[in-house]
Amino acid sequence: AKESGPNECQVYREEWDEASLERLRIQHDLRRALINQEFMLHYQPQYDMHTGAIVGVEALLRWHHPERGMIPPSQFIPIAEDSGIIVQIGQWVLEEACRQNKEWQDAGLLKIPVSVNLSMRQFWQPNFPESVAAVLERFGLEPRYLELEITESMTMDADKLTNSLLRLTDIGIGISIDDFGTGYSSFSYLKHFPIDRLKIDRSFVSDIEDDPDDAEIVAAIIAMAHNLHMQVIAEGVETAQQVHFLKMHLCDEMQGYYGSPPVPSERIAEMLAA
Ligand code: C2E
Ligand code: CA
Ligand code: CA
Ligand code: CA
């Protein structure tokens, strides 16, 4: 065990204070970030596993902080969620992704859906499905060119969730479950919820080659999704061996550095023109 000197407690307190100060700073800066347009979206292509064609893009939030440079989502989204400002940020993401997708379409590029990540807080806003419909209307984007990604942690109140999901799918918007396999109750709700697509979490995909358990899990998720008439996309695909395994097990789509990292919108436009 570690020697506990008289100053240990003091050190711990200072570290703790530093961490909470940092959270406060980020929280403060996030408000300004929206007003000063410090956010932008990058997009990561999703590929058909068998033809290699781009079949969608995921919008991923980027924050260019004026003093600190790029801050990754993992460092500010949890804080934005706790403080509630994620609702406004998420609304911006939704609008920007729809606007951008319509702009690509108007430029005559390949038409594909854009996937947008949702936080629970956004989803629980009153009349959320109608507010999404209003955004689509405003930018003139057909509902089938938008997909919303939800996570399993959002599936707490099953009745309320089903109701909101049904309203969204009635509009024609696609729904996918993000990070599939990492949350709770993965299987029970799948039968009841109107879900188009499962995204197999990166943690399973990255270990396909070395961990027989993970390989089994991935194969089982693909088979199950197909039995439930859902599409499956593998996240975090980085190697040719992973691609080979996923193809063998008839995974539908893939996303990951093997295909392309997330890139700025201009780069996507080039890819969709090719
Ligand atoms: P996610 O939704 O699971 O997004 C995929 C993350 O994996 C992205 O990280 C992406 O850059 C990364 N990634 C993609 N391919 C690979 C790969 O082959 N290998 C590895 N190691 N990583 C890969 P990013 O952009 O840092 O986003 C992290 C998380 O932040 C996202 O995870 C998502 O949960 C959240 N996030 C990002 N944008 C938004 C947003 O607009 N709204 C909300 N609520 N959350 C967002
Ligand atoms: Ca996602
Ligand atoms: Ca994910
Ligand atoms: Ca493992």
Describe it for me?
This protein has 274 residues and is an alpha/beta fold. Helix content is 47%, strand content 19%. The protein has helices spanning 8-35, 73-83, 86-106, 120-123, 128-139, 158-171, 202-206, 212-227, 240-248, 265-273, and strands at 39-48, 54-65, 69-71, 114-117, 146-151, 174-180, 197-200, 231-234, 253-254. It has an 8-stranded mixed barrel, surrounded by 5 helices. Helix 9 links the parallel strand 8 (231-234) and strand 9 (253-254). Helix 1 (8-35) packs across helix 2, helix 3 packs parallel to helix 5 (128-139) and helix 5 runs parallel beside helix 6. The radius of gyration is 20 Å and the shape is globular. The mean pLDDT is 92. Bound molecules: ligand C2E and calcium ion (CA) (3 copies). One calcium ion binds next to strand 6.
DSSP summary: helix tally: 10
Hetero groups in this structure are: ligand C2E, calcium ion
User: The biggest beta sheet, please?
Assistant: 8 strands, mixed, barrel
Order of helices and strands: HEEEHHEHHEHEEHHEHEH
C-alpha geometry: globular
Q: Which oligomeric state applies?
A: single chain
Mean pLDDT: 92
Strand content: 15-25%
Helix fraction?
40-55%
Radius of gyration: 20 Å
Are there runs of 5+ residues with pLDDT below 50, and where?
none
Adjacency order of strands in the biggest sheet: 1-2-4-5-6-7-8-9
Number of strands: 9
Q: How far apart are the first and last residues' alpha carbons, in Å?
A: 61 Å
Classify the secondary structure makeup into a structural class.
Answer: alpha/beta
Organism: Paenibacillus cellulosilyticus
Domain EAL: 23-274
Keywords: Membrane, Transmembrane, Transmembrane helix
Protein name: Diguanylate cyclase (GGDEF)-like protein
